[in-house]
Each structure stands twice: as structure tokens, then as C-alpha cells.
Amino acid sequence: MVPELRTERLVLRAWRPDDRDAFAALNADPAVVEYLPGPLDRRASDGLATRIEENWEQRGYGLWAVEVADVAPFVGFVGLSLAGFPAPFTPAIEVGWRLAHPAWGHGYATEGGRASLGFAFDTLNVDEIVSFTTVANTRSRRVMERLGMTRDPAEDFEHPNVNIGSPLRAHVLYRLGHGAWDAPRA
Questions:
Q1: Span 165-174, pLDDT tens digits
Q2: How distant is the alpha carbon of residue 66 from its chain centre?
Q3: φ, ψ at 163 (rounded to 5°)
Q4: How many CB atoms lie within 10 A of CB 63?
Q5: Quick check: 49 and 19 in contact, CB under 8 A?
Q6: Do 132 and 142 meet the contact criterion of CB atoms below 8 Å apart?
Q7: 42 touches 24 (CB < 8 A)
Q8: What gap in Å lies between CA 182 and CA 122, rounded to an integer?
Q9: Domain count, the chain
Q10: Which terminus of the chain, N or C, has less C-beta within 10 A?
Q11: Nearest-angstrom CA–CA distance, 185 and 73
């Protein structure tokens, strides 16, 4: 069962079948996938939604569907996922997000990310959460920093699932430990 989390403006909830049309549109939007390997067709988007739902069943955590309360029934996802690819810091639990372009610039990624971190640290009692993105993705990097995550440039890495030679291969790694989460935060 997927726990529902509510923030001031958001509802982080289980996925519903009617989310898939909006999710497919989001995954096909060139602005949304600018820092990803490319757009997803409908079949690949539906496959990703299915894997997200299966991860909740298998792990007890995952990526929530995000709605803006009383405004939009689905704007994307935010939550936790297992980073299991080969890297010096894996396996690790990652906080991440993907929101529809019209939902950008409203603080939803930060708000949902903060709720996800609370769930990770306060409910799952994990020791550390990571987040990573391609070097050029300054919007996501700013969200990571607003969440209190820190970067050590010595830990930046080449993502093994991105083609060699791709400008998206170089990634930055951010971390947040449970002890830092317990510290006072604005």
C-alpha cells in the first residue's frame, strides 16, 4: 500500500490508471526530458509507470504521483528510488522528481522532495539519501541544494547508463545524511 503524504499544496499519492495519459505527455515533452536520454513513447512511458508501481510493492517506498490540491490532478512524480547501477556510492536510495513543464517554478519539486525526505528519514529510518543529475541541469541542482543536500565535486561521476560521449554522461552527486536532516531547517 502506498502511503499518501500531504504538504501545504501537494498530495503525494498512489498512481491511478487515469494518470497515464498525462504522464505520457510529460515524458514526450522535449523541455521535460532535456537532461534525460530522450523522450519516451507511450509504451515506454506506461512501462515506467508500471515499474514505479511495482517498486512500491517490492520495496515499501517509491515515486509518488503528485497532484496540486484543488488545482491539478496530476503534475508528475516525486519520491524515492533505488539507485542500483554500478557506482562508488551505490546501492543507495535517491530522491528525485519529474514534473510537467507548466508545474515548474512553483516550488513543487522542493516541497515534494522535502516530504519524501521526511518519509525516508522519519518513517524508513534510512541513514542517507542521495540525488544526482547531469552537470548542466541547474534547476534540479538548485532543488537539491534547497533540500539541504551537499555536493563534494570529488564524488561527481560518469553515469554508466548514459552513452559514452554524450554530454549528459557527466553527473553531480548530492548527499543528505539523517543527522543533517535532524538539524533545524527552514
A1: 999 999 999 9
A2: 11
A3: -55, 140
A4: 27
A5: yes
A6: no
A7: yes
A8: 9
A9: 1
A10: C
A11: 29
CATH at residue 38: 3.40.630.30
CA–CA dist 140, 129 (Å, integer): 15
- Measured distance between the N- and C-terminal CA atoms of the chain, rounded to whole angstroms: 31
Residues near 20 by Cβ (< 8 Å), separated by ≥ 6? Answer: 45, 46, 49
Claim: this prediction has a pTM higher than 0.90? yes
Residues 118, 30: Cα–Cα separation, whole Å: 31
Tell me how far the alpha carbon of residue 99 is from its chain's centroid: 9
**Amino acid found at 53:** E
- Give the residue carrying C-alpha cell 499518501: 4
What letter does residue 3 receive in the DSSP assignment? Answer: P
> What's at 38, amino acid-wise?
G
Q: Where are the beta strands (DSSP E) in the chain?
A: 5-6, 10-13, 63-68, 72-83, 92-99, 128-134, 150-151, 157-158, 170-177
DSSP code at position 32: T
Task: Give the structural domain span for 15.
Answer: 5-182
Residues 65-81 have pLDDT tens digits of 999 999 989 999 999 99
Query: Alpha helix (H) ranges present in the chain?
Result: 20-28, 42-59, 108-118, 138-146, 178-182
**Residue 40, CB half-sphere, CA atoms under 13 Å: how many?**
20
Whether 12 contacts 5, CB under 8 Å:
yes
